[in-house]
Amino acid sequence: MRPTYAVIAGVIGLGGAVTAYAGLVERNRFTLRRFDVPVLQPGSAPLRVLHISDLHMTAGQRRKQDWVRRLDDLDPDLVITTGDNLAGHDAVPPTLSALAPLLERPGAFVLGSNDYWAPRPKNPLKYFWPDHKRIHGTKLSWQPLRDAMTAAGWLDLTNTRGLTRADGRQIAFAGVDDPHLRYDRYAEVVGAADPAADLRIGLTHSPEPRVVNRFAADGYDLVLAGHTHGGQLRVPFYGALVTNCGIDRRRARWLHRWAPDTWLHVSAGLGTSPYAPVRFACPPEATLLTLVER
Fold first, then answer.
1. pLDDT band per the 50, 70, 90 thresholds, residue 129
2. Structure confidence by residue, pLDDT tens digits, 1-25
3. Greater confidence, 154 or 3?
4. 5-293 falls under which CATH superfamily?
5. What pLDDT is stored for residue 194 in this prediction?
6. DSSP secondary structure, the chain, as one string
7. Quick one: 78 exposed, middle or buried, by C-beta within 10 A (0-12, 13-18, 19+)?
8. In the beta sheet, which residues pair with residue 222?
């Protein structure tokens, strides 16, 4: 039985309504997630960690810039960004303006592929092919972003380790450059995490299992990542269609126990590519992680 013109028109109309909602409403519905993470030693006071990822900032996104700036009102003890801050050649100044209040706090960061390369149009179906070819735009001037964050005292954890203090606690970090581009060099940070620290955190832009497994094996309590956008387009009651990396769809966003003593938090991120400005069942978000005793 052939569908009637009314049915076809209804399907087209529904598709248009969903696209309009995803592009005009949900991608601007900035959301704060909250999770408690049991990683601290018994008797420890809670520690508030603000995790930001995948801003994909452009100069004209003033609503997003204002929303990020107001995250400072949460009074976090520590701020972490896990890459893909930029989405254009004019994006460094507005990104730094949005982060300005947070740069006054202890922080650490790694970068992602979209900090190094400008976005460009792509076939969205390629994300369903596991070994699709990476397509880059022109090179971005990411160094001023890095320099401003390090000048504020934030740790640059690009294939290196570091220590910082937050709320009187010593925190040991290790981080890698973007595994999505195979820029990671875990051999440069390999080894047992500092047992004398109050907390041990690993950072990576893309939550590739081969990297997260190594952080877990080295004794990191918590690994923070982004990159997936939570799937960006999620099907209700099914979840993410793709993750754009090796992690399984179930763990495309939010907090999960990765190993007996290691938790993984994957941020669904705050932005999209300018060439795919839609989100569905997956609003843009930042996360306040309250670290509590085990």
1. low
2. 455 544 334 434 434 556 667 777 9
3. 154
4. Metallo-dependent phosphatases (3.60.21.10)
5. 96
6. -PPPHHHHHHHHHHHHHHHHIIIIIGGG--EEEEEEEEEEPTTPPPEEEEEE----B-TT-HHHHHHHHGGGGG--SEEEEES--BSSTT-HHHHHHHHTTGGGS-EEEE--HHHHB------GGGGGSTTPPP---SBP--HHHHHHHHHTT-EE-TTEEEEEEETTEEEEEEE-S-GGGT---GGGT-S---TTSSEEEEE-SS--HHHHHHHHHTT-SEEEE--SGGGSBEETTTEES--SSSS-GGGSSEEEEEETTEEEEE---S---TTS---BS---EEEEEEEEE-
7. buried
8. 201, 263
Residue found by looking up tokens 């099914």 in the block: 238
